[in-house]
Structure formats: C-alpha cells, structure tokens
Amino acid sequence: MAELVRGDLNQVLTFISLQIGCDPQELIAYAGEDTLGGYHFDPVEARFPIGSLWGVEGQVLYALVRHLKPETVVEIGGWAGASASHLALAVQRNGSGKVISVDSYIGDSAGTVGAAHGQLIPPALKTFVELVNADGRVWLAAQKAKSIGLIFEDADHSPDLVMELSRLALAKLKVGGYLVNHDAGHVQAYYPNGNVTPSPVGQNVQDGLSRAGANFRAYLAAPSDCGLAVTVKDSDATIEVPQPMTTQLETASQPGTGFPTRDPYEQLFESVVPKSPDEFLKRRDFVTGAPIGNANIESQSTPPEPLATKANPIVRAEKKPVAKKKPVKKSAPKVN
Could you tell me the pTM of the whole model? Predict the structure, then answer.
C-alpha cells in the first residue's frame, strides 16, 4: 500500500500542489471558495447523506477543476450528486466546461434522499451536468482517446473494477489531465457513535490503481475517513498490465473479504438527518456559498480569501516557515 499523506485540508492541498506542479496557495484559495459541504458523521455537519463524499474531498475536486480548467470533466459513479455539485460549481466559476456524470444506477426520484442519480444537484447547477445512465466501463471505452481533462472515479471499489476503470480513464485523459479515485485512504471507518473499525476499501482501491499502472499518490484530509488518490497523466506511454488474478482475489486472506457489505450504523445515521431532497437543499446556498447555519468548512485551518480576478492578480509574498498547529479533536456525537 502506498504511503498515505494525512493532514488538514490545507496541508493535503499543499502536497497535491507538489504533485501537480502549482502554487499551493492557489489550490488553498480555490478550496476556500467552495462551501457546499458533504457527508459528515455528525448529523449537524452533514450536507449530503451517507454514501456521499466528505466536504473536504469536494473542496479538493473543486480546487483541481478550478486550477486545471478542463473543458470536459467526467465522474464515474455519480449517485445522488454530491461530487457532481462540487465539480459543476467549479465549472460554472471557470466560465467554461461541462460535467458528465455516468452511473448505471437510476433509482426513483420520488423516493427518499439519494434514491435517484443526481437527485441532490441544486437547480442552479444542473445546467452544467449531463446525467448518463450507463456502465462506466462501456461508456469510457466508447470515448475518444485523450479527450477528457479530469476523471473522478467513485464506483464499486473492488480491485478488478478499479483497475479496469483506471486503465480506461488513463487512455481517455489528455496529457496533463487528472485521474482522481475516491476512498483510496479508507483504511478505517468512522461511525456516528464514535466507533472506528478497520476497512479494506483503501487497500482495494490502491491495489486496483497499482495494477492499472497508475503513478498515483493517496491523500486523507481530516475529518474524512475516505481519502482520494490523484494521478497525473504525464505521457502517452502505454503500460503493459497483467490480467486480474481471480483465484488470488477470492482467497479469504485477500483484502476486501470477511467484512460486512452494509454499514451497520447507516440506519441510525439516517434516522437523524433530513429525509427529503427539499430538506437538504434548504440547508445551504450552493451557488453563492452563503452559509446557512453551520458553514461546514471542514478543514481545521482557516481558508484564505477567494482568489483575486485577473485584473487584480495575487501578489505572492516571500514564504516564511509556519509552525504546525495540532489538530483540534472533535468529540463524536452520541446516537441514542
């Protein structure tokens, strides 16, 4: 398993900036513009239901799209629309581009929260998102090579599927484009009652990426327990990758076996959060970023002011060493 870079949002963005070759203050400033939020084990902090990405991960995606300014952004595994909302907001503020959200899941738009693909994308951002009902592998295979700027993968996290989707993604990305895989740091699962249990998902995602030949780095920004892997497509070189070893994957010692398939605390969590899309959408202003109640900026450090316009460029002062602050521990809420 690759080294997992851990820290608050700004620390993680600083390490990502080294990987992609940009000023860390640019990514940090961009992330500070995004106050959409995401999943949180504390229902008071939650802006999207369980199964969605964390707010800090949405801010990372937003910052990457704002920096790269791709014309085409693709997500594989869109579900209710948390990640698509962050991606769409970045595209909107870039002034160009589109988001294509691909998912084989349709669901029922008249059902409960998260019951339909893209259900929680706010109306003001839906014009920037194209919802596609398809198998991500089939859809990616049909795309033109080197035609996509950024791909976010958040499908079923079996090593075989991560490998297959990542190989296809790297073939379809433009040189200099980014592949971002969700849950690459999910080695522990946090629950609303404060319990922490081991999780095989992070190992599965990293195994799949390694077998796809991806030169990735994995990051985990507090308070998330999921994490992201970032790969930069830096050349057109084709890497020969061995075929999946099914027999080995099915052994009991292989990561991914022997764990419950359903979050045992899911029902408890869902009993204390809003039940309808309207309840979720009323809790925050997605487009203006105006806080409604808790602003849900989940980094332990304070984001700087939003980036200046081109007419008023940022003046970068000489960097000075900054003393590291100890992260503030939050007590987990009790679930009765």
Answer: 0.74
What are 227's strand-pairing partners? none
Facing residues of 99 across strands?
A: 73, 129
Domain membership of residue 107 (yes or no) is yes
Q: Identify which of 330, 271, 236 has the alpha carbon closest to the alpha carbon of residue 113.
A: 271
- The answer to whether residue 320 sits within a structural domain is no
Domain housing 38 = 4-281
Kindly list the distances between the CA atom of residue 60 and the CA atoms of 191, 237, 298, in Å, as whole numbers in the listed order: 23, 27, 12
Phi, then psi, of 171 in degrees rounded to 5: -75, -30
d(CA 80, CA 70): 23
Q: For residue 93, is it within any domain?
A: yes
**Tens of pLDDT, residues 131-187:** 999 999 999 999 999 999 999 999 989 999 999 999 999 999 999 999 999 999 999
Count up the domains in the chain and report the number: 1
